[in-house]
Each structure stands twice: as structure tokens, then as C-alpha cells.
Fold this sequence. Notes:
Order of helices and strands of chain B: HHEHHEEH
Structural class of chain B: alpha+beta
Number of strands of chain B: 3
Shape of chain A: globular
Distance between the termini of chain B: 31 Å
Distance between the termini of chain A: 31 Å
Helix content of chain A: over 70%
Oligomer: heterodimer
Radius of gyration of chain B: 15 Å
Largest sheet of chain A: none
Strand content of chain B: 15-25%
Shape of chain B: elongated
Amino acid sequence: MDVREAQDALGYAAAVRRRARSDATAMWLPMVLFGTLTLASVVVARRASEFQSLWLMAGPLGGLIIGIFAYRRGRERGIEGPSLRYVVAAVELMLLALATAWITSALVGGYDATWQTRFGPAIVIAAGYLAFAWLERNIAVAAVAVALIASIIVMAAIRPPHPWTDAMLTVLCGVALIASGIGLRTKGTRIWIRASIER
Amino acid sequence: MTHPTTGLDDTVHQRVRLGILTVLAETKRADFGYLREALELTDGNLSRHLQVLGDAGYVNLEKTIEGNRPRTWVSATKDGRAALAAEIASLRTLLDVLGAGSR
């Protein structure tokens, strides 16, 4: 075996892996769904406690919806992805958010402690990005999560005085999620159309 | 069977079987029709390669009836996933060694 043969075999395996991963997962739905919930949370939840209550219900429910969608889509296409993992990840995230809220309130007193109120939502969203990056083995999503965490750290360091800044950060997260989801959906459709034409 | 000079597993190294195991390693299971389309194979060709992988204990076949239609689901076994991981690692090592040698 020579270098070209080994490269060819690895390249072929990588191409097949990309196609299978794209067919087995439906990443656009979690992004659009959780992006919409993120935007809704800015309008509905005024306090951190309300925000947590909203996500404790919406998170697992969203995970369940995504899991069912992924399962049905997988059976239809003939390739079953990790549908149960979405539900498990959503529940784990909610538990993580709850534990973070409890620990923070125990340390600094009360749910409306400044740091948690201002940056808690963005941290939960960043954790969501990380979970989906892991589920999909997607470096681009992991990069988004890291960028978001970096922006939270910068915001926490600068501590902008205007309360609207926090809401703006959450809105930015929501819009970024929805835009990424729509982008992935469009890209996925293009791949399918191109594959059909080539066939 | 292991290749005497490269240490590659001939069962996995064959291009189509490498493709089948790669697809299955990314998923819980895939059906016969999906594998046939994704890897651009004929029914007979895919059946033959699945038989080789099945005999080696690398894949499991599950035949079901869904809406009066027979459907064959294929999944990778633990051994199959390990064999694929070993194959990819061997190819990378080989590439490193050969690449270093040709420099």
C-alpha cells in the first residue's frame, strides 16, 4: 500500500462519515426550537426564577420533541441516529442549570443575585451549544459555544451598567441559534438536491 | 485476516466494507436500502459484503416487517466498531510512516 492508497481510503471514510452524520441527525430543529424559546424567555421571564421555571419545563419538553422528530425522521430515511441522546442531553442541561442556580443562590444568597441573574441565561445557552456540539461531533457549533462563553466572561468583566445589555445578550444568543438552524436546514437541503441531481 | 505487511484487517480494509462500517459506526442502525443508496451498490453486492462482515461478527442483521413490507436493519457490533477504529488508526499510522519515508 502506498501513500495515495492510504489517503484515498481515509478520504473515502471521511466522506461517507460526513454523509451518514448529516443524514442521521437533524441539528437544525434543536437550534431553531431552542433559539425561539430563548427569544420567548426574554419576553416572558422577567426574573431569573421565572427564567429557570420556564426552562425547567421547556427544556425537557423541547428535548422530547426533538427526540421524537429525530426518531421518526431516522426511520423514514432508513438511518437511525442518537434520538434518545437529545432527550437525555436536554434533561441533563436542565439539571445542570438547576444545580448551578442552587449553588449560586447558596453562595451569594437569593435567585436574583446579580451575577446569576445577568449571566445565568447565557451560560445555560452556552452549555446547550456545547451539548449539541458533542452530540453532533460538530466543531463549528463548539466554536460558537466557546465564542459565547468568551463573550459572557468579557461582559462579566466589563459589567455594563444598562440592564438592557443582558437582554440584548440573550436576544443575540436566540437570533444566532435560529440563524444557524436555518443555515443548517438550507445547507442540508442543498446537499440532498445536489445528490439527487448527480444521481 | 490481517495483512502481513501493513497490519490492516482485510475484512474491514476492503473499500465497500470500510464504507458500511463507517456508516454504521455513526448511527444506531441503518436499513439495507439506505446503505445501498449511500454507498451506490447493487442489492447483490451489498448482501455479499454484509455476509462477510456478519461472518466476522462485525455487524448484526435484523429483519422486520413494517407496514406489510420487509425491512432489514443493520447495526455494527462492538467488535465491528473496534475493528473500524483499529483500521482507521492503522491507516493513519501507515500514512505517517510512508509520508515520513517519502520526505
